[in-house]
Design goal:
Chain lengths: 344, 344, 344, 344
């Protein structure tokens, strides 16, 4: 349940398109999110799972695309996503050194669901995105387990927490404590209602560079260390789209990141996975030629705008709910909400 | 009319899939090809036009993709093709210095067809591929005119010549005289007949590197100069495909080029444009969401094989019909058919 | 001579890094810019030339890279630039339908400089970027000539005009009259002074979306038509860089575009060409192995920031100097400076 | 110790360039290769490690590049390699479900070498390539351990086994038993001797499609199942090269794969990692601007040819030394050498 303060509650709504009911990625029907949060001594980390639908993702593969602005990172799965144009597992987010273990967990879960994987049938291709939480958390402990990954998937539901939870537990953004943020936008196409939602693990930006929607800068007065944390983005929609269209839309999330103040620092990986729940490819189709629906390209600008706005708001949302933390080695990140209150 | 010797008539059939009726790109229903051939003193060049259908390509845009193995060249249009996933003009082939003029001709022709282009509506994006025929032809003369480009499009029909005609007039391949070649393969999907056809302007390969389908090498005993000529490929099909799938199929044409003996030399640009006649996007769609059909990815291998085989055979076809030429500066390229006859 | 109002004179400086002496791309030593402006009835267009150095660019090829955020357009040359990692002609900017003619002009000029091009030696690969000025100018007239392109190159010097000149003559941005803008940033590396400069043909953005450096929105109260104009960017530096590094830096110009208010609309091509004057490749090197210098990757963030800031300021600069224009069909674009004055 | 039959000993030398002394990737000075082989019941798998030099790879990062022809797979690390242009760990090869565990092993080993990784300093980015050995081995057992990965790195030396060892233990190629193969080519640049070497985990190709260097086909008379195994390639050289040049060279390995008979099947991932030992980037450079050496682009064709030839021969080498295996579920792959002997 989303109990923490949201960006919008702090007056930080972004853009002009209407938000969905929850203003999270789960406004896209069927999408579920779950967390495992690990706070244990110097370890502040976890796993966040995004499930594209509540069925077997391997059997019903959503059309998907990946996009990379800055490949500085350890994420796995984007080569496959862009080659075949689908995801076939849930998407896991975790810390930089948890990718291998989360990939193993996704493989084992898929095999449990379909014992022919890697036997009669082809293998399965996990998708894991990551950010480096080593400033606040003991990343060398490699504390993420396959059980933690499983638990995040098992916990997935429509109502989920934002802020310093799950994979976001140890993340920082623009010098503030950060975590997982989310937002959504509502769209009309052929007079029907659709949604585009985003979920962001925001762990980037130099202190002092944060820009609020009204243009003001917010500076936690922390050291201006290089931008070296990364940002991982998941974009979901129920608008019918092709792989190429999803990739174009994913690219617009870079506008949302830039609007929040960043110039995409060298050490800050910037990766997006986008999927549509409207086009699903059966693992074993019963025909050679399949029907699909796609948005007319000349109507795609509203999806571009929705993606940029929702990503910008998701970044602020990740900070809005995250309280100050004193982490590993006494490293501290202040909370943005507290900072805003004091400033007001 | 295809009167010249074809690769297959010389015993140079490639692969195992059945060829279409004509064994050319026009086995794909609706596709038309036309040439303008320019032989004037030291000038041996021209234009070849591939029309994806006999309607207005700007109003009915075939889904398309471009792929580049070696970007050494001056071709225009692939950025647009891969961004929007369509072609909106015929595809022109010409020499390296004729690209600008052919692009101008495509723009003027499109404007004649739709006077709102660049006024109320958006602009139009021409596609022109090129190879360097400067060894045999005076490329500095810049002899290709907009009229030549127009004439090639006006001449387009199902029966077209291969060999040293059109844009292929001054081309060389593996030390032999070359030109335009074509081939096709027939496919069954859901028990219906489809075709995949290729048209190649073959102007690459070092003398001595040519490999025939049975594995033997063919050496014109010419100087082993660097591979610096380029190859331009057009791939057409009536199988319903997405942009991503077309791009994957286009990539398999590299196997066909390699099978003919090349290792993709530094100075030899290698570009493909692939389109399907089965998915057309109206310039002004009357709905936000459109229906499309695509092949099931698990059935795509037969298209990969068809593309590789047809490209390999198209390369041989380009040489099969091209007779020896003494061109600019006394430069000479022997004919492959004559060479094969003497060798037999 | 830069006489028109500059962005900085209007209080629109961007970012925190110091600007160079002229605050234009020609702060990079050796870089020259020239314009040909065409105002003739309904035609308001032209050509702008960026010369990377005052020598023969074909003989001394600057290391270069291209980057595409949105390939919606007709530009030529980026495939070659990214394959071989150099430019070998000046860079020309013009309108969407002038690309072919400008490419022809670049070829002819190169052949005059080296009569072996396309004979004994390889061909030459022109670079032309474009935007669609069809709202204010009669683009169907195809008014750009090879002479206009030549004249722009011949006129190139360190002091050059910004605003509605050259290729910028008929351009619009965020509903305002726009044109060519420029900016630069000064950098210290190993205690030596370097510059990074940008030149932008700004022809994008919906009316109402323009954001000033202080975060306020500026709305000309014009129709909110789709973003369909494109933006073409040239980035120059004397910092020694590799192709890969230039490409990373070029990608940061997307932050500058986003900071100005855009979400990268569907119909708005977004292309960058970046080059360094510090690494030049001789056309005929006298050794197999060449020496090069590159910036240490861990110091590259200052170049990222410089690129983002300079591009943002170049966009504002393009509008700052451009006065209101009533163009083709009575279409009108107000001037931003006048709008700011009235607002103050 | 390379004791098994080599491709060359079977008369299967490829191309015309001279091989290095060992005709393996370790002809590139400093490169080392080690294996861990796991044969345990139905499990036939392992790990193969390629060390670019015998120092600390994290402290001295070789310039590197990745290239993907078919992204169907689970490999990790290519995004980073292409973003920053280096590798900073050894390269591990393993089965499709061993990637996560091998990545974990690489991270732990790097942290042991530099305890500041992920603390004061940035994180480390492992590179792991994979193929699916599920036909012969019980891939669901996930039998690869971090210890196995460590052992492969610890065992690395100049003399190493080829054939069904290490990661190659359970691999198949064109219906034959396969494994790890290697080859090298010797090059002269500026009158000095250089080497380019390749190591291939060959696990692709339909039975019947294998083509020997003389053009003949070799068919094990096995079921023609779809090409679904993948091929992972490592390319090393001591020629000084940039990231862009390494990527171009890596792309030529596709010619070698095609020459062996493949058309790059849908389910067969095809990935290359290429590095040069001649350009190493210190983790903490002591200057902002660094010296580098690169090959003149006009001399790069000999490297292209070397890569294509060495990859083709490496594929044959992987089969030459691999004896027939009856694996999981009674699945059998005959040995190519035995097949050739019987045929002779």
């Amino acid at each position: 349940m989303v109990e923490a303060a949201r960006a919008r509650a702090l007056g930080l709504a972004c853009g002009s398109l209407p938000a969905g009911h929850r203003n999270t990625i789960t406004d896209v029907p069927g999408v579920l999110v779950g967390h495992t949060t690990i706070n244990d001594g110097d370890v502040h980390t976890g796993v966040t799972a995004v499930l594209p639908h509540d069925g077997d993702v391997f059997q019903e593969k959503p059309v998907a695309a990946g996009e990379v602005l800055n490949g500085f990172g350890n994420s796995i799965g984007l080569d496959f996503v862009n080659e075949v144009g689908v995801i076939e597992t849930p998407i896991l987010l975790t810390n930089t050194f948890g990718v291998g273990t989360c990939a193993n967990a996704l493989i084992r879960r898929a095999v449990r669901g379909d014992p022919e994987i890697g036997r009669q049938g082809p293998t399965v291709h996990p998708v894991v995105l990551e950010c480096n939480d080593g400033y606040l958390s003991d990343i060398q402990a490699m504390a993420v387990t396959e059980e933690a990954a499983e638990a995040a998937m098992d916990a997935a539901e429509e109502d989920f927490a934002v802020g310093a939870v799950g994979a976001g537990t140890g993340m920082s953004c623009y010098g503030f404590k950060s975590g997982i943020g989310s937002a959504s936008r509502r769209l009309l196409l052929d007079r029907e209602v659709y949604h585009l939602g985003t979920l962001v693990m925001a762990n980037f930006g130099r202190a002092g560079d944060l820009r609020l929607p009204d243009g003001t800068r917010l500076d936690p007065q922390a050291a201006r260390i290089p931008e070296a944390g990364s940002v991982a983005l998941v974009l979901a929609t129920d608008v019918p789209l092709s792989h190429r269209q999803l990739r174009r839309i994913a690219r617009r999330s870079f506008a949302g990141i830039a609007w929040s103040g960043s110039f995409f620092g060298h050490g800050s990986g910037d990766l997006v996975v986008a999927f549509t729940t409207a086009n699903r490819i059966p693992h074993e189709p019963d025909a050679d030629i399949l029907d699909r629906r796609v948005v007319a390209e000349s109507r795609i600008d509203r999806l571009f705008q929705a993606a940029a706005e929702a990503v910008q708001e998701s970044v602020l949302d990740a900070m809005a709910a995250a309280e100050a933390l004193v982490g590993r080695h006494g490293h501290t990140r202040p909370g943005m909400a507290e900072h805003l209150r004091r400033r007001a």
